Amino acid sequence: MNGLTGNEAVVMKNVCKDFKVLNRHEGLKGSIRDLFSRDYKTVSAVKDVSMTVNRGEIIGYLGPNGAGKSTTIKMMTGVLEPTSGEILVNGKVPYKNRTENCENIGVVFGQRSQLWWALPLVESFKLLRDIYMVPQKDYEGMIELYRSLVDLESILHKPVRQMSLGQRTLSDILAAFIHNPPVVFLDEPTIGLDVSMKAKIRELILGLNKEKNTTVILTTHDMGDVDALCRRIVIIDKGMKIYDNDIDHLKNYFGSYRTLKLKLADDTWEEMLIDEKTTDVMDVIMARQKETKIKDVKILEISTEDVIKKIYEGSSK
């Protein structure tokens, strides 16, 4: 690719990915017919996506289910070859340099652990050290860094099968960074965790990014992750990129929106999104007051989650 500065960790240019899908027929006869059918249709999972991620960035790669996020990540990691377009990760084409690419990325995907279930965590770390051929001094340096960021001793000698979900997730993230890769892909790293463990995971990711300047590409549906970790977000829907900018710019674009929360007579809270350019907040409150008693009112700035919802709604239309 032309025009690269050398500071790019990931570069995608006009990337597309199509799949051939069999047109299936209903019933037993249809199933038998499908065995010999050549009736295929082409489905475009990713359509002309371009983006550049610089070294040290943490970006949120967001989109609804089926938007094309996983397909894009699989192309970045070298699992899939794009139908057209160009991808470089750490200056290499992932699917052409799969072994080298795997040596220079870290991955935590879909709660699929890369740890050995029956072994203490430290033994998994040692095995990964050998697999990635990490020099002993570098390995010991990473372990010391981990100790400075988390309570490592409480899990280091604990078999993975005895860990809680939060401890396993924490351990998987540590394992993904053990060989100090320039780029790490994290898929839903805090899913299913309690508030306390989510905070620990986020602090760990920020700490590792700061200390090692690691580029992190994060896919998540938890907007708490986005607010805590990402200054920039990329949104994809129906295979197409629909937003690529920082969060503050996104919120400014929706600056006239407010979240109106009303506490009703039964002590439940009702929440709605109001655009002050088109709707008077007091008119909404008065109209609702005619229907039921309102005990309390709160007007909040629009949240990242509400902004993302508005963008999804707009793209679906």
Written account of the structure:
- This protein has helices at 27-35, 69-76, 98-103, 121-131, 136-149, 153-156, 165-177, 195-212, 223-229, 247-253, 281-291, 304-316, and strands at 8-22, 40-54, 58-62, 84-89, 105-108, 183-187, 215-219, 232-237, 240-246, 257-264, 269-275, 294-301.
- 38% of the residues lie in helices and 29% in strands.
- β6 (183-187), α8 and β7 form a beta-alpha-beta unit.
- The longest helix is centred in the middle third of the chain and has 18 residues, at 195-212.
- α7 (165-177) runs parallel beside α8 (195-212).
> What portion of residues is helical?
25-40%
How big is the Rg?
A: 23 Å
Low-pLDDT runs of 5+ residues are none
CATH topology category name of the largest domain:
Rossmann fold
CATH-assigned homologous superfamily of the largest domain:
P-loop containing nucleotide triphosphate hydrolases
Number of domains: 2
Q: Report strand order across the widest sheet.
A: 5-6-7-3-8-9
- The CATH top-level class label of the largest domain: Alpha Beta
The number of helical runs is 12
Estimated share of beta-strand residues:
25-35%
Based on the structure given, which CATH architecture of the largest domain is correct? 3-Layer(aba) Sandwich
Number of strands: 12
What sort of overall outline do the alpha carbons produce when their principal axes are compared?
Answer: globular
What's the mean pLDDT score?
88
Order of helices and strands: EHEEHEHEHHHHEHEHEEHEEHEH
Largest β-sheet summary: 6 strands, mixed
Q: How many angstroms separate the termini?
A: 35 Å
SS-derived structural category: alpha/beta
